[in-house]
Structure formats: structure tokens, C-alpha cells
Amino acid sequence: MSELSLFFAQNVACDTTEEFVVSQRFKDKVGNAVAWKLRSMTEDENQECRKAATRKVKGKNGVYTSEIEPNDYMAKLMTSSVVHPDLKNAELQRSYGVLGAETLLRKMLLPGEFAALGERVQALNGFGTDMNELVDEVKN
Question: Most buried among 42, 47, 81, 83, by the most CB within 10 A?
């Protein structure tokens, strides 16, 4: 096998999935904490999250610039990486009285749980920096 063939699509590990206990509050019938299933994403999916979190902001002299809303970007990144539970499930959203996967995630989790899930999703997707550094990098 040539050195170049190591980079061929069929020789590269695809999506990485893992289980992660986001909270001790979600328990199965026996009382054990239920793990959420997370997956890595492609850069194309990341760009979709970034684009969806980008807003046009009117600046000086009426010039518009693009700005990424970091909280929206992080929520979109997280919901795109969560496989189970299905955050897009209408019945699950209805049980929390919300519409939308990002809104559901914010409603389901305590602030510390939300932050822990965010850190795990960033690590799973290869981000070795904290969110503030990531947002600064995306802006440039």
C-alpha cells in the first residue's frame, strides 16, 4: 500500500460515535444513568452550523458585516452531534413544551450539563481549543 493510499476515503475512519452520560438525572428503569449517543461530523456539516448561526449586523456608515452568534453556533454544533435522544422528535419537544432541537437541549439540561456536553462534542469533533478561541478563529 502506497503512502498516498493511506489517505484514500476507504482507508480513513469515518464517523466516530461514543456514549456519554450527560446527566445523572436521566435514568433507565433500573435507576442507572442513561448515556447519550454522540457522533462526529464533517466539516461540511460544521459549515452548515456556522452559516445558520451567522447574522448580518449593521455597522458604521450602514455597512453590514457577518457575525457568528457563539451561543447559537454551539447549540447547533451540539444538536448536530447528538444521535440519541432524537432532539428533533416532536413528542420529546412537546413534553418540554418547546419547538426546535436547540431550544429543547437548553430546556432539558442544567447549565453545567449543557457545558459538559458542549466540551465533549468539541473534543469529539477535533476542537482542541475552548469555544471562545474557536469563535475567534471562525470570525477570521
Answer: 81
Q: Which of 14, 22, 15 is nearest to 39 (CA)?
A: 15
- The three-state secondary structure class of 58 is strand
User: What single string gives the DSSP state of each residue in 51-106?
Assistant: HHTEEEEE-GGG-EEEEE-HHHHHHHHHHHHEEES-TT-HHHHHHHT--SHHHHHH
Is the pTM of the predicted complex or chain greater than 0.85? Answer: no
Q: What is the pLDDT of residue 3?
A: 80
Residue 70 CA, distance from chain mean position: 12
DSSP run (H or E) holding 52: helix 43-52
Tell me if 56 sits within 8 A of 69, measured CB to CB.
Answer: no
Residues 6+ apart with CB under 8 A from 11: 5
